[in-house]
Design brief:
Its EC number is 3.4.24.-. By secondary structure, this protein is α+β, with helices and mostly antiparallel strands. It contains ten helices and four strands, in the order βααααβββαααααα. Strands 1-3-4-2 form a four-stranded mixed sheet. Helix 3 runs parallel beside helix 10 and helix 6 crosses helix 8.
């Protein structure tokens, strides 16, 4: 998997471990199964609830709406039934972006609230946007992965004040940057069998450039109000460019 939204701390890999890296697919076991029939899936509350929350996010959340519009402008239109999949996942992740299929996986067994769905969809759409606009080497270049994880943590609302308070984490100056760095490292460790030192080094080497890359928002959206303003500015920017 290209990138993942980590739901809980991930243990560091043991030094010298020789187990082959499965690129994070172990966390998404349904990826390797045959698609289930609609009738079969409709019997399970998790799947129905996931689909309903996803629809609500795509229709009403300004973070997601901006990213969907930006993807469309970049030639990568997103379709609900093609590019999103509600599946059961490992307990340590909430979602992931599968670059091999250009599909966002939403962990129906771990996402229980609409606010959580909003954040996970936004996080993974940022990975999808990066995949669309750049030649990202998700599997072999850990710096590329680190950059997208930094952007996702920075722009998705992962590190808003309210979310950090809910995690019992408090800070003053520079706390947002600290949160972004820590969550980027956690996400890398969730999907790659690398040491914590390797993940930290990759994040630190690209942090400044990737933290300051605010596309397509143009600002860090610290709240839904900020996201609405960013979405309005993005729409106005497109209208201005169309008149040139």
């Amino acid at each position: 998997m290209a990138g993942a939204e980590a739901a809980s701390p991930v243990a560091e890999e043991k030094a010298g471990e020789e187990e082959e890296d499965d690129l994070g697919y172990r966390l998404f076991p349904d990826r390797n199964k045959k698609p289930q029939s609609f009738l079969f899936r409709s019997l399970f509350t998790f799947h129905n609830k996931c689909q309903l929350m996803l629809r609500m996010t795509l229709e009403t959340n300004p973070y997601a709406q901006l990213l969907l519009e930006a993807m469309k402008q970049s030639g990568c239109t997103v379709f609900n039934d093609r590019h999103f999949s509600c599946e059961n996942c490992d307990g340590c992740v909430s979602g992931g972006f599968d670059s091999a299929t250009s599909q966002i996986v939403l962990c129906q067994n771990n996402i229980r609230q609409q606010s959580h769905m909003n954040r996970v969809v936004t996080h993974e759409l940022i990975h999808a946007f990066d995949h669309c606009r750049a030649h990202v080497d998700w599997f072999k270049n850990v710096k590329h992965l680190a950059c997208s994880e930094i952007r996702a943590a920075n722009l998705s609302g992962d590190c808003t004040l309210m979310n950090e308070i809910a995690r019992f984490k408090f800070g003053l100056k520079g706390h947002h940057q600290t949160c972004v760095r820590d969550r980027a490292i956690r996400s890398i460790l969730a999907v790659r069998k690398v040491s914590k030192e390797t993940a930290e080094k990759a994040v630190d080497e690209v942090f400044d450039a990737c933290f300051n890359d605010l596309e397509p928002f143009g600002r860090i959206p610290h709240s839904k109000t900020d996201a609405k303003r960013a979405y309005r500015d993005f729409q106005n920017r497109d209208r201005y460019n169309a008149n040139l």
